[in-house]
Write a structure and sequence with these properties.
A hairpin with a 2-residue loop joins strand 24 (541-550) and strand 25. The chain is 31% helix and 20% strand. It has a domain at 263-371: Alpha-Beta Complex (Flavocytochrome C3, Chain A, domain 1), CATH 3.90.700.10. A 6-stranded mixed β-sheet has the order 22-20-14-24-25-26. The chain is globular, with a radius of gyration of 22 Å. The protein has 575 residues and is of the alpha/beta class. The chain contains 14 helices and 26 strands.
C-alpha cells in the first residue's frame, strides 16, 4: 500500500492545473522554508522538529494555537509502554480493528516508533498520570485493545495536556505563528511543486485579509471533517479544509467512506446539532457497561470484548438496539464507580454531564453514536509525502494506511506524533530550495455555495451517510448535495469564511458519498444495510479519489487498488 510509494508518487493528477476557491488576491506574503497548517499534536510536533533542524517554520492555525481537535481528546495515547506488552501485540490489535485494510508496514512503523515518540513528548513537557504505587505511567484499556496500553493525563484530559505542552514549547522557541487564519488553497510553482498556501486572517493579529505564506514544503495538519455531519465530537473548526485543499490541488485522497462514529457521545436530545460532549471509551475501559432503557445489558455476547469491542461494532450494537426498541439513545452505566472515582479519573466528563443535568454518580448516562474521526484522508507514503511534490500531510487529515477501515482507539495521537516526526526528518534531508509561485497556478476559481447551505449539507449527510447507509440513502444524499451546488451559470456567493467553509464541506461530502456508494459491502465503520456482509474477494482494496478540472466544473476520478500495492492501478472510472 502506501509503503510502496518511494517518493512523490506519479499519477494521473500531478499534471492537473488544479482548482481554487473564489477569493480576493493576496495582499501580503511571508517567506519561509516550511509552512505547517494546523496546531494539534501533528502540526505542532512537525513544526517543532522542522524548526529544530534549522528550517524557518511558520505555523498557520484556524483559531488559537490550542483550539484544535487535540485538546478535546479524552482517553489517551496508545503505545506499548507497559510490562509484558509489545509492539507486535499492539500491531495485531490495530490490524484486527482495521478490518483488512491497514497497511501493515505503516502500522509496524507506528507501533515500533511509537513508544520512543511518547517519551520524546514527555521530554517536551507533557505530564502523564502515574501510578501512586510504582510511579510508572498509569495505563488503561479501550475498545479493541487486549492490554492496558493507553497513557492518559489529568484523568480524562489527555489532549489538553499534550496541547499545553506543545504550545508552550512553540512559544518558548519563538516560532512565527498566524492564528485565526483559514487556509484557502495550495500555491504551486511552474513545475507543479508546492510553493506555499494562500490564507485569510480573520480580523485579528498582525495580518488581516487574504495573504500567503511562500514555502517549498507545506505540511497539512488540519484535523478532521466531523462538521460535515449534524452531530459530531469535533470542534467547529473541523470543516475538512485540508482534504478540500488537497483535492483542489490535484492530490489523491483515499478511504473517505470510513468515518468512525464514536459509540458513546452524550445524548443531548433529538435534533441536537454541532459539537457534542464525548464520553470517553476509557469509561468502558474502567468497567462501565451499556444498557437499554430497561437496564438490560446488550453488548455481552455480541463480541468477545463486549463493550470493549472495536468502535464500529459497539456503534452498530447501540444503533441496532435503538432501532429495535424505537429509542433515541442507549445508556452507559458507571454508577458502581462511586463519586471519588468519577471525580479523580473522569473529572472532565463528570463536569460535562452535570452541566447538562445528568449525574453519572447516581444515574446512567444517555449516549448515542456521533461522527468522530476520519480514518481516510489525503493519501501519503511513510514519510508523509502526498502525490503533489512538496505537499505533506499528517494527523487526521492524512491517510497513512495505519487505520484501515476503522481506527483503533487512541492510535490517533500516536499517529500524529510518529508521522509528524517522519515528515520533519524528510524535510531536513531535502536540499533547500527557493520557490516562486506561478501566476495563475491555482487554476480556475470554483463558485461558492451560500453559507446557509452548510446546515442542509450536514443534515443530508447525517440522514444519508451516517452510521446506517444504503444505496438508496446514499443516492438520495448525492442528489441533494448536487442540488446544493452553485448553478451551471457559475454564480458564486460572496467570498468569506462562512462560504469558504461551506464550499469545503460540500466538496468533502460529495467525495465521501461517492466513495460510500461505490463500496458495495460492509467493512469496519462503513455499514451498508443493503450490503451487510464483508466481501474480501471484491473489496479488500482501497478507493483512491482525485479531482480533475473539466469543462464547466470538475470531475471525480476513482482508482481501486488492492490492500498491499497502493500505486498500481487496477481500475479507473469517472464518478
Amino acid at each position: 500500500m502506501n509503503a510502496a510509494v518511494n517518493g512523490p508518487a506519479s499519477g494521473p493528477v500531478n499534471g492537473a492545473a488544479g482548482l481554487r476557491l473564489t477569493a480576493p488576491r493576496s495582499g501580503w506574503a511571508i517567506e519561509a522554508d516550511v509552512v505547517v497548517v494546523g496546531s494539534g499534536v501533528a502540526g505542532l510536533t512537525a513544526a517543532l522538529r522542522c524548526a529544530a533542524s534549522g528550517r524557518k517554520t511558520v505555523i498557520v492555525t484556524k483559531a488559537r494555537l490550542d483550539a484544535g481537535s487535540t485538546r478535546w481528546a479524552q482517553g489517551g495515547i496508545a503505545a506499548a509502554l507497559g510490562e509484558g506488552d509489545t509492539p507486535g501485540q499492539h500491531l495485531q490489535d490495530t490490524l484486527v480493528a482495521g478490518a483488512g485494510l491497514c497497511d501493515e508496514e505503516a502500522v509496524r512503523t507506528l507501533v515500533t516508533e511509537g513508544p520512543d515518540a511518547v517519551r520524546r513528548l514527555i521530554g517536551t513537557g507533557a505530564r502523564f498520570d502515574t501510578s501512586p504505587e510504582t510511579g510508572e505511567i498509569a495505563l488503561t484499556r479501550e475498545g479493541g485493545h487486549h492490554r492496558r496500553r493507553i497513557a492518559h493525563a489529568g484523568g480524562d484530559a489527555t489532549g489538553a495536556e499534550i496541547s499545553r505542552a506543545l504550545v508552550a514549547a512553540v512559544r518558548e522557541a519563538g516560532m512565527e505563528t498566524i492564528e485565526n487564519a483559514l487556509v484557502l488553497d495550495l500555491l504551486k510553482d511552474a513545475d507543479g511543486h508546492a510553493a506555499g498556501v494562500s490564507l485569510h486572517v480573520m480580523g485579528e493579529g498582525r495580518h488581516d485579509g487574504v495573504g500567503a505564506v511562500h514555502a517549498p514544503a507545506v505540511v497539512l495538519a488540519t484535523g478532521g471533517m466531523g462538521q460535515v455531519f449534524s452531530a459530531t465530537t469535533n470542534p467547529a473548526v473541523s470543516t475538512g479544509d485540508g482534504v478540500a485543499l488537497a483535492l483542489r490541488a490535484g492530490a489523491e485522497v483515499s478511504d473517505l467512506e470510513f468515518v468512525q462514529f464514536h459509540p458513546t457521545v452524550l445524548f443531548l436530545g433529538p435534533g441536537s446539532e454541532g459539537q457534542q460532549p464525548l464520553v470517553s471509551e476509557a469509561v468502558r475501559g474502567e468497567g462501565a457497561y451499556l444498557v437499554d432503557a430497561d437496564g438490560v445489558r446488550f453488548m455481552a455476547g455480541q463480541h468477545e470484548l463486549a463493550e470493549l469491542a472495536p468502535r464500529d461494532i459497539v456503534a452498530k450494537g447501540i444503533t441496532r438496539r435503538m432501532r429495535e426498541r424505537g429509542d433515541d439513545c442507549a445508556y452507559l452505566d458507571a454508577r458502581h464507580f462511586g463519586a471519588r472515582m468519577w471525580a479523580e479519573r473522569f473529572p472532565t466528563i463528570l463536569a460535562a454531564c452535570r452541566a447538562h443535568g445528568i449525574d453519572p454518580v447516581t444515574e446512567p448516562v444517555p449516549v448515542a453514536p456521533a461522527a468522530h474521526y476520519a480514518s481516510g484522508g489525503v493519501r501519503t507514503d511513510l514519510a508523509g509525502r502526498t502525490t503533489v511534490p512538496g505537499l505533506y500531510a499528517c494527523g487526521e487529515v492524512a491517510c497513512t494506511g495505519v487505520h484501515g477501515a476503522n481506527r483503533l482507539a487512541s492510535n490517533s495521537l500516536l499517529e500524529g506524533l510518529v508521522f509528524a516526526e517522519r515528515i520533519a526528518a524528510d524535510i531536513a534531508r531535502a536540499p533547500r530550495r527557493a520557490v516562486v509561485p506561478a501566476e495563475g497556478a491555482g487554476g480556475p476559481a470554483v463558485p461558492l455555495p451560500p453559507a446557509e447551505a452548510r446546515y442542509a449539507i450536514q443534515r443530508t449527510m447525517t440522514a444519508g451517510a451516517g452510521v446506517l447507509r444504503s444505496a438508496e440513502s446514499l443516492e438520495r444524499a448525492a442528489r441533494e448535495l448536487e442540488a446544493l451546488a452553485p448553478g451551471p451559470d457559475g454564480k458564486s456567493a460572496e467570498p468569506g469564511v462562512e462560504t469558504w467553509e461551506t464550499a469545503n464541506l460540500h466538496l468533502v461530502a460529495g467525495v465521501l458519498v461517492a466513495a460510500a456508494l461505490r463500496r458495495a459491502e460492509t467493512r469496519g465503520c462503513h455499514w451498508r444495510e443493503d450490503r451487510p456482509d464483508r466481501d474480501d474477494e471484491a473489496w479488500r482494496r482501497h478507493l483512491v479519489v482525485a479531482l480533475r478540472p473539466a469543462a464547466g466544473g470538475s470531475t471525480l476520478v476513482v482508482r481501486t487498488t488492492d490492500s498491499t500495492a497502493f500505486p498500481p492501478v487496477a481500475h479507473e472510472e469517472t464518478l
